[in-house]
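The material for today's practical consists of a large collection of protein records. Backbone structure tokens are a discrete shorthand for how the chain folds in space. An example says more than a description, so a record of this kind follows:
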Amino acid sequence: MQSNRSHDTKPELALRRALHARGLRYRVCAKPLPDLRMKADLVFRPARVAVEVRGCFWHGCKLHCRKPSANSDYWTAKIDRNIARDLKNEMALRQAGWLLIAVWEHEEPSAAAAEIDKLVRDRRSP
């Protein structure tokens, strides 16, 4: 399990390249809120937008996550805990006035970047 990357994954790097090409600048692997234990993959502080690139297996994608055949009780519980943690973090960010955008690893990076670009620019302008 140590070889699984927590950041700088291929989907995350592709999204970062697409956002950078659109002229957006961001913090990488940063805490949106100091008291929250979560680090978002991308943080746009002035706009109060956090972006999380989620793996289909680890975060229970409804389209691609399938029940593991080996040690299924452990992995099912683990994925359920991850989903619950994601919801808890999203609620904490929302209460603090932040927007959390979840981008799934199977999404097209350029389409996700276009959506993020629009939301960040809308939240920046008064």
